UniProtKB/TrEMBL annotation:
Residues 10-170 form the Bacterial bifunctional deaminase-reductase C-terminal domain. InterPro entries: DHFR-like_dom_sf, RibDG_C. It comes from the Bacteria. This is Dihydrofolate reductase family protein.
Length: 193
């Protein structure tokens, strides 16, 4: 089964959005270079960011998000973000009535069920878990294998935390990737077992 990877762009002080759920400059690094990151040509990053990010994106088979993120993004209009094959939404409310019935979105109740479903759908590919409350719950359940952070040089002061409301200590290994891009520092850690 594919490894579960917790991922997001994050401020220096550990926030993935401000109090109003706005990312502010957290995604500016995706527009700060001259190398197209996807076929749209809109996202352009430094060569170092491309070499780190593109292979990761290509290995993602399923993404797990919470219902809050799904609602904020308006369900990406039924098209999984970044070309991901499947999106698993952790929710107690289920699929919205009449919402894109053909879309490869799966609505499950609970993070453990989300990981099981995502791994079944992803096969040997990676399962990406969005950082925040759901990501923190998956980490607390011992189901995260790796933590990836794109650290952006901004301090929010408050907002939505990268690890959500995790209230226990979790040890990570030393970083096995530290990549400096333009307006971003990419870090990757394995979770200590």
């Amino acid at each position: 089964m594919g490894r579960a990877v917790m991922y997001a762009s994050v401020s220096l002080d550990g926030f993935i959005a401000d109090e109003g759920d706005q990312p502010g400059p957290l995604f500016d690094w995706l527009l700060s270079g001259d190398v197209p990151l996807d076929e749209s040509g809109v996202l352009k990053v430094s060569q170092a960011s491309y070499d780190y990010t593109r292979p990761y994106w290509d290995r993602i088979g399923a993404t797990i998000v919470g219902r809050h993120v799904f609602d904020i993004a308006d369900g990406w209009e039924g098209k999984p973000p970044g070309g991901v094959d499947h999106v698993i939404v952790v929710t107690h409310r289920g699929r919205p009535e009449g919402w894109h019935p053909e879309a490869p979105f799966h609505f499950v109740d609970g993070v453990e069920a989300a990981v099981v479903r995502a791994q079944a759908l992803a096969g040997d590919r990676l399962v990406e878990v969005a950082a925040g409350e759901v990501g923190g719950q998956v980490l607390a359940a011992g189901l995260i294998d790796e933590v990836r952070m794109d650290i952006v040089p901004v301090v929010f002061g408050s907002g939505k935390r990268y690890f959500g409301s995790v209230d226990a200590q979790h040890l990570l290994e030393d970083p096995d990737a530290v990549i400096q891009g333009s307006r971003v520092l990419h870090l990757r850690y394995r979770v200590r077992r």
